[in-house]
Design a protein that fits this description.
- Pfam families: Amidase_2 (PF01510).
- Keywords: Signal.
- GO terms for molecular function: N-acetylmuramoyl-L-alanine amidase activity; zinc ion binding.
- One of its GO terms (biological process) is peptidoglycan catabolic process.
- By secondary structure, this protein is of the alpha+beta class.
- It has 2 domains: 31-38 and 146-378, Lysozyme-like (3-Layer(aba) Sandwich), CATH 3.40.80; 42-138, Jelly Rolls (Sandwich), CATH 2.60.120.
- The protein contains 5 helices and 24 strands.
- The protein has helices at residues 4-8, 11-24, 214-228, 301-318, 367-378; strands at 30-32, 40-43, 46-53, 56-59, 68-73, 79-84, 87-88, 92-93, 110-115, 121-125, 132-138, 144-147, 154-156, 166-167, 192-193, 197-202, 238-240, 246-248, 260-264, 270-273, 285-290, 325-329, 336-340, 342-344.
- Strands 14-18-17-21-16-24 form a 6-stranded mixed β-sheet, with helices on one face.
- Helix 4 (301-318) crosses helix 5.
- It starts with a helix and ends with a helix.
- The relative contact order is 0.17.
Length: 379
Amino acid sequence: MISRRAVLRGSASTAVAMAAGIVAAGSGATSASAASAGPRAVPTTLAANRGRLASRTVVTAPKLPLTHLSVAHTGESAAVRLRTAAGWGQWRELGGCAGGRDGSPAAGYRSSVVVAAGATAYEVQAKDGSTVSTVELNTVDGPLRTVAAPVRNALPLPSGATLPFYLSRGTWDADESLRFAADGSEVWPGQFIPVQTLTVHHTGLTEHNGDPDPAATVRAIYYDQCVLQGWGDIGYHLLIDEQGRVYEGRYSGSDAIPVYGSALGDDRRPLMVNAAHVGGFNAGNVGVCLLGRFSTGQPTAAAHRSLVLVLAALSALGRLNPTARTTYVNPLSGVSGEVNVISGHRDWASIGADPTECPGDAFYPYLGKLRREVAALYR
């Protein structure tokens, strides 16, 4: 597989579980994954790399049946439209965010994963004349790969609260082999860091809801970020679909709780695994991503409810004040600046991150109310 960059250039576990009691006390407070007890078969993601295309290109014969399309562009803006049995659809502006691992060189492009189930052709356009590249993806029909039994972890929630459903990596069929190089080494070993901030994202995919297979989309995002962008894993810690289901993102180990490792920091708080959702500002920053694009519409009530619950749980575990501002300091690079404890992705541009619309022009103004809702539940 050609990389996108080449185209465009024990006891500690118990302690963490005890720390989870801060928010998980009470019966029914934890939503466990529905993972099976034994090995399971997961579909191998099929990928066909089209490479560099002209600034406006029509592809009438995809190399494989599409479920998703990964589109990268070097300029400021790009768009795509799909043809299905009903004909050509509307142009979709691409909302790729500037993620990436801390300390890695800038990719020089932005990447978006488009839901393309049923598409028989597609057209891409880079409006400023820059180059684009596409990788055609199918995350459901590939050969089945037998993997080990998934880790049975759970998401701690405020007392008495429940999620509609929680899916561990094994439950949404993450192909864990993608995280390893040919020599068996882990591409991106986890670094565990105290939590300072929480950041809300949207994927910038389907506007605003309506994904027919969200788990397949999570697998497509995983493949795009882990393999095509070369990060070694998915860049978000948690993802939420329109039904309010929560998906485990970045791998954090075999302990009982996602996002965190098995050890505690000097202040007895659990340590988060470093991820790749705000380039240059990831260390100490937990990323929670809504599936969808919210530039003109809002998340569903179910997604909003789960987002509040998740942010309240993370705030309690990290002993964070959801309505406060804080001086964030990246412990790996030393970069710092004042931000909200709960921020939208775009807020990080004020202290040096690349600008972005994320988490959407329509949803972003509600973040102030969201912080108050999280604080009320936390109390």
